[in-house]
From TrEMBL:
<feature type="transmembrane region" description="Helical">
    <location>
        <begin position="150"/>
        <end position="169"/>
    </location>
</feature>
<keyword id="KW-0812">Transmembrane</keyword>
<dbReference type="GO" id="GO:0005886">
    <property type="term" value="C:plasma membrane"/>
</dbReference>
<feature type="transmembrane region" description="Helical">
    <location>
        <begin position="268"/>
        <end position="292"/>
    </location>
</feature>
<keyword id="KW-1133">Transmembrane helix</keyword>
<dbReference type="Pfam" id="PF02653">
    <property type="entry name" value="BPD_transp_2"/>
</dbReference>
<feature type="transmembrane region" description="Helical">
    <location>
        <begin position="106"/>
        <end position="125"/>
    </location>
</feature>
<protein>
    <submittedName>
        <fullName>Branched-chain amino acid transport system permease protein LivM</fullName>
    </submittedName>
</protein>
<dbReference type="InterPro" id="IPR043428">
    <property type="entry name" value="LivM-like"/>
</dbReference>
<feature type="transmembrane region" description="Helical">
    <location>
        <begin position="229"/>
        <end position="248"/>
    </location>
</feature>
<keyword id="KW-0472">Membrane</keyword>
<feature type="transmembrane region" description="Helical">
    <location>
        <begin position="304"/>
        <end position="327"/>
    </location>
</feature>
<feature type="transmembrane region" description="Helical">
    <location>
        <begin position="33"/>
        <end position="50"/>
    </location>
</feature>
<feature type="transmembrane region" description="Helical">
    <location>
        <begin position="181"/>
        <end position="208"/>
    </location>
</feature>
<keyword id="KW-1003">Cell membrane</keyword>
<dbReference type="InterPro" id="IPR001851">
    <property type="entry name" value="ABC_transp_permease"/>
</dbReference>
<dbReference type="GO" id="GO:0015658">
    <property type="term" value="F:branched-chain amino acid transmembrane transporter activity"/>
</dbReference>
Amino acid sequence: MEAQRRAPQRAGEAPPHAGLLLRRRARWSAMEILFWLLPIPLFFLFGLRLPLLTEIAILALFALSLDLILGYAGIVSLGHAAFFGLGAYTAGLLAVHGWGEPITGLLAAGAVATAAGFVSSFLVLRGSDLTRLMVTLAISMMLLEAANRLAWLTGGADGLYGVTMWPIFGIFEFDLYGHTAYWYSVIVLFISFVALRAIVNSPFGLALRGVKGNPLRMRAIGAPVNRHLVKAFTIGAGFAGIAGGLLAQATQFVSLDVLAFHRSAEALLVLVIGGSGAVYGGILGAAAFRVLQEWLSGITPQYWQFWLGAGLIVLVLFARGGLIGLWRALVRRLHRTRDEEAR
C-alpha cells in the first residue's frame, strides 16, 4: 500500500480518490431512472404532439454533442451545425439513392461527421477562443454555400426530396402520426446519452474538466491537452452528425436549414437555458426552449422572440447555471434549512 501511495502518477491518470468520485457519479439514481421513464406517459398524454416531442429529442441530442466540447472541453463554437448538416445530408442521400435502412444510415451519418470533426479539429484548435468562433462559423458557412451550389446532389434551396426510410428492423414503419419516429428518436437519444454520460464520468472526462479550468497547469503536469481537445471535438462532431441524421430520417426531408447559423445558435441557447457542463442540461434546455417557443408563438406570433429574450435575461440574472444551476441552488438551500432545523 505504501509503495502504491508513493508511486508517481502518470500524466492524465486519475488519482485513487478521483476514481472513487467518478464511480459515484457514474451510478444511476432513482430520479434519473424515473426521468427516462417519462417518454412512456408523454406518448399517451401528448399523442397529437409527437412531432414536437421528436423535435425536442433531436435538439437535445444536438445540444448534448455541443455540451461535450463547450461545457466540458471549453471549446467555443458557432458552427456546430456543420456536423449536424453533414449527418443529415449523409442519411438523406443514402435513402435517396436506395439505402433507406435507418440504423446503418444513422451510423454512416455519425461516421462522416466524426471524420469531418477530426480533420477540422486541427484547424479549429490552433487559435484562441475568438479565432475558434470565427473558424467554426466559417466552416459552417462554407458547407452551407457548397450545399447550395451542388443542387444536383443536395437539392439546393428546394431541399432533398425522396428520402424514404425502410421499416426499422423490417417491422416498425415510419407512420404518418410519428409514433415510430418518436420512439426511434427517444431510444437513439437515450443510447447516445448513456455513451456521453460514461465519457464525462471517465478519467478522460475528468481530464477535460482540468483542461477547461486550467490548460497551462494540465500541460505542466504532462497531460496531452491538444490530444484531449481533438478527441472531445471529434466525438462531439460525431454525435452532432447522429442528431442530424436522426432529423433527416424522422422528417424524411433535408434542406439547407440543417446547416444554417440559427441551428448552432439554438444549441447554444439550449445550453444557456439548461446549463452547460451538466449531462442533463441539454435535455432540460431543449424541452424548455421548444415548449416556450411553441407557447409564445401561439400567444404572440410576431413578438415571441422578444419575450423569449426577456426570459433568457431573467434566467441569466437569477439562475446562474441555467435550470440545472437553479435546481442545485434549491437543493443546497433545502439542505441548509434541514441542517439549521436539526441544530
